[in-house]
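Submission sheet (multi-component)
Chains listed below:
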Amino acid sequence: MLERAFSGDQKYYRWVTILLVFIGLGFATYLVQLNKGLTITGLSRDVSWGFYIAQFTFLVGVAASAVMVVLPYYLHDVKAFGRITILGEFLAVAAVTMCLLFIIVDLGKPMRLLNVLLYPTPNSILFWDMIVLNGYLFINIIVGWNVLDAERKGVHYQEWLKPLIYLSIPWAVSIHTVTAFLYAGLPGRHYWLTAIMAARFLASAFCSGPALLILLSYVVKKFSKFDPGKEAIDRLSIIMTYAMIISIFFVGLEFFTAFYSNIPSHKHALEYLFVGLEGHGKLVPFMWAFVILALAGLALLINPKTRKDEKTLKIACVCVFTSMWLEKGLGLVVAGFIPNPFEHVREYAPTIPEIMIGLGIWATGFLVLTILYKIAISVKEEVSS
Amino acid sequence: MEKSKRDFLKVSGLCALGLGVLPLAKGIAAGNAPQVMQNPEALKGQQWAMVVDMKKCWEKGKEGCKDCLDACHKVHNVPTIEDPQEEIKWIWTEHYENTFPGLGNPYTNEKLKGKPFIVLCNHCSNPPCVRVCPTQATFKRADGITMMDYHRCIGCRFCMAGCPFGARSFNFREPREYIKDLNYKYPGRERGVVEKCSFCDERLAVGQLPACVESCKVGALVFGDQTDPKSPVRKLLDTNFTIRRKTELGTEPNVYYII
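Outcome: structure written.
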């Protein structure tokens, strides 16, 4: 099936070339980082995780969201999702690939990566995250690939895949729960020390993931003969609406607990994010952009007219995806470190090289996604013709 | 050469058996390994601890004295990096309000306000950094020291997120270039790993007290085994009111302060 990735029109090759250029630039910048160390980033001894880990966290959510098409299709027999489950699974593959790359570029000693396997440490959440992420990657590759191959041959997929498909459902929940536990179990990081962290992560995953999937479905529809179907998109947009409402509700809960209890350490990070703390407020404009985009997205989604209209739904998806990226892929990780354990406010901003490496990884993810989608769509076009 | 399936299975079975027995063989071999003899002078303890007598430090010490900080950083090859983002510190000073967040009040005694407190790794009895490390590169020793293995650390910095005391520093750049006189008796670190105070394990092993303790001319730093009722640490704990940093987090820090 892989050969289908090599036969495309000029537009396809142009897109792949653009991605390769970004990958090349990112890789070259990574070589500089490898040579000089993480000093080329904006990280510090106070904010020791930043852009890389935030991207990783956000993308785990995108990966986990595949369950939002897999679960209704396989457990509730929602036929409309039959056409796009493969798109969900392959999106998960691309997202987990990016997650793993973001972890690797964040390491100070990447050549010692395998120490995590050589000295397995069950009391470390990072050890479990390694297991669930890699497991999820393999499950989705195996399931996606074999189901697609069966479709190409016009037969039912192998029986042994069924338990794997069922396993992928709780596994998707596990990747984001474990990722939330990376943060939610640390003493002294008040912004992260919240019991609803995993719930927040899942809720934001189930709106940002479907938002991307809907946008991708429209792209697929535009550039190929394969139509994911109106019903699938309708149902997906309803899932996204509920997840977005819950997500925003959860953020509100954090505000209530922090400000009604009036405990300074619990208020600090939120104050830093939304109004600035002790004159420092680099993230304030971004967080207000999050608020505005989230509300705009919600307004467009809750109104059935705008939710069902292709044009406004697309805008809503962009709003949801961007707002969740700002909240999780930017604010959440950084604000956990501010103020530092001595209550000094030391800010963080990613540097140009850091962003270049990040873009390189996003491009790598999109290349994986493009190739996998190209194969899937070619097969679907063949089958239908 | 033609090989039957049967032959193939035989060989693979044998290989599998060999692999299965390997840990056993390793275990037996390890039992016969030569043991490293301990220095008879070595100081022994179950949980090392430190009492920092700030009162003594301020009253008897010279204004702006940095003897303990300098002694530690010199003996351990700690680089002097000016950039506050990337500085490496094992022992340093922070203001009262910053050392004990929440203890300050609007009418804090002028004697305390803005006063420097000596801070270092607390070698907690229940250290979150050890709990989160994915490779056991940071671990708890039998004598209670929270130790780092700089050769195993992958530089993920999870321990830095886990430590509520800000005791850990990361080598963002090559540290060697920032060390003026290298101490050839102590190893340096590489770029890309986390480091922190080690309670001078290398000195305890040869019967010496930690460098900071030894360097203090007024005896403001006191070191000993807190499980031993006769230790100097326990004597101070018995006769003074002491506080520790952030006890509410349950990490059981082992550095005590007399104010």
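Remark: Chain A has one domain: 2-384.
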